[in-house]
Amino acid sequence: MPGDSIGKMFKVSVWGESHGSSIGAVVEGCPPGIELDLNRIQEELNRRKPGRNKFVSARNEKDRFEILSGLFNGRTTGTPISVIIKNEGFEKENYEELGRIFRPGHADYTYHAKYGIRDYYGGGRSSARMTAPVVVAGAIAGQVLSGELGIEIQAYVKKIGNIRSNISSSEVEKADLYRSPVNFPDMDREKEILALLGKLEEEGNSVGGIVECVIKNVPAGFGEPLFDKLDADLAKAMVGLNAVKGFEIGNGFECAELTGKENNDGFSVSNGKVVTKTNNSGGVLGGISNGMPIVFRVAFKAAPSIAQKQNTIDIDGKKIEIEIKGNHDICVAIRAVPVVEALSAIIVCDHYLRCRGQCGVK
Amino acid sequence: MPGDSIGKMFKVSVWGESHGSSIGAVVEGCPPGIELDLNRIQEELNRRKPGRNKFVSARNEKDRFEILSGLFNGRTTGTPISVIIKNEGFEKENYEELGRIFRPGHADYTYHAKYGIRDYYGGGRSSARMTAPVVVAGAIAGQVLSGELGIEIQAYVKKIGNIRSNISSSEVEKADLYRSPVNFPDMDREKEILALLGKLEEEGNSVGGIVECVIKNVPAGFGEPLFDKLDADLAKAMVGLNAVKGFEIGNGFECAELTGKENNDGFSVSNGKVVTKTNNSGGVLGGISNGMPIVFRVAFKAAPSIAQKQNTIDIDGKKIEIEIKGNHDICVAIRAVPVVEALSAIIVCDHYLRCRGQCGVK
Amino acid sequence: MPGDSIGKMFKVSVWGESHGSSIGAVVEGCPPGIELDLNRIQEELNRRKPGRNKFVSARNEKDRFEILSGLFNGRTTGTPISVIIKNEGFEKENYEELGRIFRPGHADYTYHAKYGIRDYYGGGRSSARMTAPVVVAGAIAGQVLSGELGIEIQAYVKKIGNIRSNISSSEVEKADLYRSPVNFPDMDREKEILALLGKLEEEGNSVGGIVECVIKNVPAGFGEPLFDKLDADLAKAMVGLNAVKGFEIGNGFECAELTGKENNDGFSVSNGKVVTKTNNSGGVLGGISNGMPIVFRVAFKAAPSIAQKQNTIDIDGKKIEIEIKGNHDICVAIRAVPVVEALSAIIVCDHYLRCRGQCGVK
Amino acid sequence: MPGDSIGKMFKVSVWGESHGSSIGAVVEGCPPGIELDLNRIQEELNRRKPGRNKFVSARNEKDRFEILSGLFNGRTTGTPISVIIKNEGFEKENYEELGRIFRPGHADYTYHAKYGIRDYYGGGRSSARMTAPVVVAGAIAGQVLSGELGIEIQAYVKKIGNIRSNISSSEVEKADLYRSPVNFPDMDREKEILALLGKLEEEGNSVGGIVECVIKNVPAGFGEPLFDKLDADLAKAMVGLNAVKGFEIGNGFECAELTGKENNDGFSVSNGKVVTKTNNSGGVLGGISNGMPIVFRVAFKAAPSIAQKQNTIDIDGKKIEIEIKGNHDICVAIRAVPVVEALSAIIVCDHYLRCRGQCGVK
Fold this sequence. Notes:
The structure is a homotetramer.
Chain A: E1 5-6, E2 11-15, E3 22-28, H1 38-48, E4 65-67, E5 71-72, E6 75-76, E7 81-86, H2 93-96, E8 101-102, H3 108-115, H4 131-149, E9 152-160, E10 163-164, H5 174-179, H6 190-203, E11 209-216, H7 230-239, E12 244-249, H8 260-263, E13 267-270, E14 273-276, E15 284-285, E16 288-289, E17 294-300, E18 310-314, E19 319-322, H9 332-355
Antiparallel strand pairs in A: 1-2, 2-3, 3-7, 4-7, 5-6, 8-18, 9-10, 9-11, 11-17, 12-17, 13-14, 15-16, 18-19
Helix pairs in contact in A: 1-4, 1-9, 4-9, 7-9
């Protein structure tokens, strides 16, 4: 049973492979009558693009999206929005030798085990290139959310290696982020990050990182108990993202060390709105949004493609030694920032439409 | 759009409220012809039951399940298995005063915001009591998996407060776990746990914890890219569980600090089977099982029901002070262990059936 | 992949077998805050009950439903409504001899081929008894629709054998229907029906029939192109009903003989509402309701259980001769009338909730 | 909630509008490793094309499809197959005047009521042009079915106006069909059809028709009770097709006039296979295939676009008189033949994959 779609009411189905002629998405369920700002969508896509600085993959992707359906005179019609992006800026020759090899940390072996056949150019279907149409779909969702509900979504790098930002989620400034080549809000520690990335690049190595995301102005009431909770759907979307190994919301894994007395967020009323004094829960209680900012973090492993020698096996089980050439990301968390935002927008928009007309939401 | 079901091929729909006459589940998609061991299912249910020791809720639940359909002469027929469990051992009077109150850390407020009406006895729909039918459904899934594929699932408490087990996931012994009143595998540190729980009980407080789960003998090939990955579905199931705030697989959040060189699991062949020397990925690559043990951890917050005084508001926004009486869990992670196993079984069984006849799986 | 559910937003999952201890349904997605009239639901269930007259199965079913969840102080809470009905009034002994036999026209052989095992008492899972919980679920949907939108659903027998009602769909009176023992609106021809049924009963034979259904006051806009059209969903629900072999909407199969000039329904405006002068389309255009009455017909084959001798085979392929004893319906279309209404209510309610907040529907 | 997809295991999502730059489909769940014959797919698409004779729409569609993903070295990879077809051969000017008009029998009004906005060129989303990608997807499904199970699907025109083919479903010859410009198997009566169509063309009128479809070699066991029965899914697919007003399987509406004795298909064994002597059931019992040919019929209304004057209203409710110019089909049933086959292939393939590994199907 295929797993190529995310969302039920706002549904995004992604097709394509890294080195096919093009990749794309079909976006279903977008409300009709919305005037889409295509330039803003392209800006989001540009943020994901490789080649923005020397520490992310230098593949020369132009990444211009095109919308083939679902728009009429600039407005959505409620019918599927077909998004297409041409694949450009690569040479297939770089990869052919890898066709018989199971690269450590990649999905080569598991795709082989599952399907018996795979498009091995550039990782084929398992490539992070698949996130480009996700960003377009997420940008559409984001415009639905910001226009109708004033919802804002902001992600950024929280940590790379052991260098952690000291800026709290409520203090992050969008301006700083757009300035930072590594989507890192702590200007004091940015140079440490840059130094680390420079060193790893020289060594032909890579490193992991953590992305934090804040979603503001979600009304109380989004999320479906028992099994389609808002935080559960965010968790699924994030853990499904390439290279992700962990998800936590609110204080996350730290909550294991706290007592109930310490951890409970007491309710009060402020400006006629129910609020909590602390936000350890990260904006979700019982799987339903409580109106406070939704704050979560996502852990990315180091990109498995490194220039250093590694031991592995080929398709026949024979031991081999490989060096993975080409321009690869040193820290995938950096380019993942707009993707985390896009997936968040898709999930929240999906839950918005699930609630519409049903929980105080118009 | 309702969210009461988990799984697509092996699908479990849960109905009921904490203090209704009964709760239950409808299990769809169970393969026909399987002879179910009902005693083993009851044993799993008993492990979840409150009252097993003095640190978990003393509500006197008998928790005897009954199967109303889908079995014929002791064998599954491929049609829905309806599971029912009577609700017993509580008095509604304990809770009535809470009807107008938004308890901190609970879902009272969010259900109110979403639905405008809620069954407030014992938490109603948001109660962890809903996990009882999940355990029955998971035990059925577990028998499908163990019988047809030899898959074994084992969860246990990894950490409570700041007391962490030093037993690695490959060394945990089932015997120790069944002996431990707190599902904790590290016999040396168990007394520290018991002392901590005793102290918290006296104080009328609670504490968080981490549960680890190991799934062995999953063949390579389970999981559906891009958006229904095996690890993503596990994440959704776990984060959807009551009180959970985090999920990580393999080395999880630690991966953020590692380089690619350190983190990559090199492939080799052992006894004709593809294996990895390390298992930092936790048995999943690109969202698809690679044949290595699947290892993940789940973070539970402290139970929000504590006997100490807390400030909060009522349904009209008026400030109030509450003490939550009754017998409550001091650490919900303990009783969550069989539920984590049950949800794991449901997810893996679902992916097994999604693969059946399609990826080397008979 | 299981097929036990109907509806996506208003979702009904049915479990059980004809001669198990009980049967039931889980109704998900019912809007919260609705005060259900349980007596009216029971009345609907009574209409489906066997034994109302001598021409329908005399099985003595009490058919009292019970609601186990999802109601709080008489109102829906938005959580699953679990419906249970005890199975009573039969003796298993009547059926045991049929366990090895493939009865003509029944699903014995196909269940055997599909599952390898089946509950053969009274047809087990394939029995029309499964429609009892559908009637309860449909009655709940009907109350949602009548209360919020004033939608009315009325089905009746249009034809039995070659005796056809001459009352047009706009002239059918509810009072006549409640009076008629065979749910037949044409009082002039009712005696012909009764004579036919009496003759068939003597002969140990049965006969087919056609049920017509009218749904009034559906707003324009219900239905989802391309593949979840309102008429397509009605067709699926109806053809999925036991013994059904055909579905047509509006003028149905007659449209094949008409020209476009004859068949097109011209638009006009009446009392500020868009209407059509004729209603050949049966209230649906392009799969979306147009505000006119929805009118469709469903063809039922004769009940395959007849007392006359029939040749067939047993499970080993050996030729045998059988006579099916017991009290069986002479014309299943009669008792199907409330089931057709119930399924209609479920489908329309599902589409209502899919539209809510999205197409001029509050 | 969007309705743009058909199938669950073999899933086809269709995007586009009649006069957009292109239309397409994403086909998910196609088993990996299948070598697709692209020429045969193009042949199927050509059969649907307008302009094959003077009685179907003369729009000059080239209808060359392209596959953008999911194929590797000519074989399917198990990942989504993205199909795209350019829209060509029309001039937008023809239609602009219709932008404010609700054409009788078309979906103009209902789309307007539902979405508030619509792409009105050539019917936009509601155009039968949407069936072109369906034919491609169905041809892929057909290759899966014919290659792995030897399943054959054949549709043809059974009736136009009151001219009915006298060739029984078991006697239809593929060769005759490919020869007939109107997909009509009864060579004796073909000239009557041609005369009728010629006359209607002169008059600027159109006419309805009935398509019959036969599916051979479906193993016993396909179909999911209670609500995803094989015949129910076929009914939904067919009634969802443009201009369809009825569906019947086996003897269909005729069954209403037959007794059980007359209608029951007795089982016997032939060449070691369970068969029935008659096939009144049309190959499906209890919603599950019984191994006999599946035979069903679909009723199409006359194309609503006619050159004669019609009275209707515009978007403001004002009465107007229109004549619909352009080249339109005189009988849409003719061109629908390959679409009925394609939808049949999609539904049967979906049920094949739902059964795979589960009901005697490898």
